[in-house]
Amino acid sequence: MLKLLLLLSILLACAVANDKVEVYATSMVTKDNIVTADGEVVVIYKDYYLSAKKALYDRNSGELELFGNIRANQGENIKLLGEYAKLNIAEKERTFKPFYMLERTSDVWISGDGSYAKDTEVEIDTGVMSGCDPNNPLWKMEFTSSDYNSDTMWLNLYNARIYIYDIPVFYTPYFGYSLDTTRRTGLLPPMVGFSDKEGFYYEQALYIAESNWWDLELKPQIRTNRGSGLYTTFRFVDSKVSKGSLTAGYFKEKEDYFLENKLANQKHYGFNFLYENSDVINEWFGTSFKGQSGLYVDVLNMNDVEYINLSTNDTTQNVTTTQLLSRINLFYNTDDDYIATYFKHYKDLNLASNETTLQNLPAIHYHNYLDTLLDDHFIYSFDIVSNNYYRSLGKSATQTDINIPLTLQTSAFDELLNLSYEANLYAQHTLFAGDEDSANPSVYEYKNGIFARNYHVVSASTQLTKAYEKSTHVVDFGAKYQREGSKTESGYYEDYKDYADFCSISTNKLNPLCSSSYPFRDFYNISDIEENLQLYFSHYLYDSLGKQVFYHRLSQNISYEDVGGGAGELENELDLQITDNVNFYNNMFYNYDESAFSKNFNKISYNGDSLNIGLSHMYQDSFLPQTTTYSPKTSYMTSSLAYKYDKHYSYSFRLDYDLERSEKKSFEVGFLYQKRCWDFGLTYLENNRPILSQVVNPGEDPASHVYDRYIYVTIRLKPIMKSDGSLSGFMFRLPDKSETN
Q1: 58: Cβ–Cβ under 8 A, 6 or more apart, which residues?
Q2: What integer pLDDT is reported at residue 625 of this predicted model?
Q3: Are residues 117 and 151 in the same domain?
Q4: Number of structural domains found in the chain
Q5: d(CA 637, CA 622)
């Protein structure tokens, strides 16, 4: 027979008027102001719901004690267990012995000898934390003490030891972790690795987020045989329409490593500032313009490419180059007009000085969008760009381009045939400044000049569409005839045109006069307008859902020039969706004079639920003579494979290979084993990366590349380490192989 529930209901008032405790039990005994409740005891306090076998309430002290098989729920996400609990309502204190807490959102549990809580702060005695099955956790983190804030959901562990099963693998005096997704200040999981050449690698990142509009990441690192350094990133959001970041770093080589590897610099440093604002004029100047304005800033500088190589221990994640470009773009755009200014600064890390490097500081651009007259039969627009090309040593110039296209268009045969005539008016003016850059100025005499011309384009095209029961076929073909009209040139353009005509012949392209180092051609960017006819044909096929099944295009140019005339290269482009999972793409150019392909790119891919395969090959031939420093051919292959065997096992493979040089560019093979609370992966990687070396002996070629080979072990203890691969791992680098470029 069921006992009568709810024999006792005690409502206890506390210092805060709204605080009260409700206690329900099946039996009650009162003696000397001590209330004893037995059998199915239930306690409700704020957002706590507790159950126990027995409860004692002291009317004098206001303390409520619970005994035996205590189960407690706080809100929807936290579950507590214990054998003894004490609630002091007046002091807002809570004690559990022993202590067990499960946070349902993150699936993290904590077990300790006991806990003491007041308000939102919880202190936990010696215990253990994990995200695995409590009965036999694969990983766990033991600690001597811990504290937890129930409002911020931030957990601190002190003297933490990480165990894989019962094997200790790592110790840290402090570990902080947020049980929710809110940004918090604290230490991030470290990165560790080992190389026989660089020694033991250790990086310990500190994340600082004291405000909701900025955060700072500090990443000090040490390579025991090589040196040490610090990289840092400051990110900020200064308004609803703008954000930015500043990354900077410094690394110093040890003397022995620097001398042994003949590096160009013992210290590597640099920075990168990024900023974007999508409504900069209204935001900065308090205006209310209806047009769109924007600012984009990407400014970077470094003393050599090793600054990038040393930013992480995984060099496959780096995009390294010896050519740096800094940009600042500012624009204002309306439905009718576009005005902008662009700043571009170039730096070549292989040069001792960039004094002779041309910088574009700035370019000013105005564009008037297409407008129509005569019932949309006449279309016109206007575009002007002025570039200030500057360098501290040598000739500089201000070059202004004006382009005005005028188009007449109509249709015939009930819009079956589209006809158009376009007259393009173009002019360029160059104003020089600075000193001549040659010991013989008479050869490289720069005169201010004007170039102007017009050319004509006549085109005819048609587009046919046919709908079927399960597909739609679209055919588009036409012809476009282009011919230069009149032109005039003076000053610099008249002096240089003989060189331009000479270098336009393919057999002369390797002549020193036609090289980019020939100073007189630095400012000449005029391309000839050939008299030619372009024939093109394309067709598409779409299924009933509007998805493209295939796309095919053919294009043929026919030149009517006296020199180099005739049929140009035939271009063929094909994009074929063979099945729902298999796609094939091809783009190739056929040269009639050489009876060979000048370019042929092929890519086939398979994308399925568990298997993804990609294979591509690029072949290109300029048909120029082979030299000791120049190869006219490019043959490059890329391949990738990703296979998910089941919900636990997945495998990956990647290979990039230069067939022309017989050189492997990168290689990767590995697997990843995933479970609910942990991931384990093993990957072997090879990567060909550039470095900057010094020439010690005359005639010696510096090593420009290093071929890294290493084994990467991934261990993620979830949920404290994310499953996106952005956190923990161990790198073992095999002996490097330096290659002379």
Answers
A1: 33, 34, 64
A2: 80
A3: yes
A4: 5
A5: 18
DSSP-derived secondary structure for 63-121:
EEEEEEEEEEEETTTEEEEEEEEEEETTTTEEEEESEEEEETTTTEEEEES-EEEETTE
Q: Of 515, 492, 493, which Cα lies nearest the Cα of 503?
A: 515
Q: What is the pLDDT of residues 384-423, one digit of tens each?
A: 999 999 998 888 999 999 999 999 999 998 888 999 999 9
pLDDT at 494 over 70: yes
Domain boundary among 546, 577, 608: 577
308: left (phi over 0), alpha (psi -120 to 50) or beta: alpha
Q: For residue 189, is the peptide bond before it cis, meaning its omega torsion is within 30 degrees of 0?
A: no
The pLDDT assigned to 740 comes to 37
356 and 287 in a common domain: no
Q: Which two tokens stand for residue 494?
A: 């008249």
Sign of CA dihedral 135, 136, 139, 144: positive
Residue 580 CB neighbour total at 10 angstroms = 9
Co-location of 54 and 107 in the same domain: no
| Contacts for 564-567: CB closer than 8 Å, 24+ residues apart | 564/504, 564/505, 564/506, 566/592, 566/593, 567/592
- How far is 208 from 214, CA to CA, in rounded Å? 9
Please report the pLDDT score of residue 710 as a whole number: 77
Mean pLDDT value across the chain: 85
Burial 203-217 (b: 16+ CB within 10 A, else e): bbbebbbeeeeebbb
Q: Give the integer Cα–Cα distance in Å for 77 and 130.
A: 16
Residue 187 within a domain: no
Q: Are residues 308 and 395 in the same domain?
A: no
Least Cα distance to 675 among 715, 712, 730 occurs for 715
Say whether both 439 and 454 belong to one domain: yes
Terminal Cα-to-Cα distance of the chain (whole angstroms): 91
Structural domain of residue 346, as residue ranges?
223-350
Its pTM stands at 0.75
| Alpha-carbon gap, residue 296 to 276, rounded angstroms | 5
Residue 623 has pLDDT above 90, yes or no: no
Q: Which range is least confidently modeled, 8-22, 262-276, 483-497, 699-713? A: 8-22
Residue 16: the pLDDT is: 37
In a domain, residue 190? The reply is no
Is residue 198, in this structure, part of any structural domain at all?
no
Whether residue 177 is contained in a domain is answered as yes
Are 70 and 124 contained in the same domain?
no
d(CA 27, CA 665): 79
Do 303 and 382 have their domain in common? no
Highest mean pLDDT among 495-499, 589-593, 719-723: 589-593
- Tell me: do 372 and 517 sit in the same domain: yes
Question: Which residue shows structure tokens 């009260």?
Answer: 20
Q: Which residues contact 272 (CB under 8 A, 6 or more apart)?
A: 246, 247, 248, 298, 299, 300
Domain end, chosen from 90, 113, 130, is at 90
Burial status of residue 740 (CB atoms within 10 A of its CB: 0-12, 13-18, 19 or more): exposed
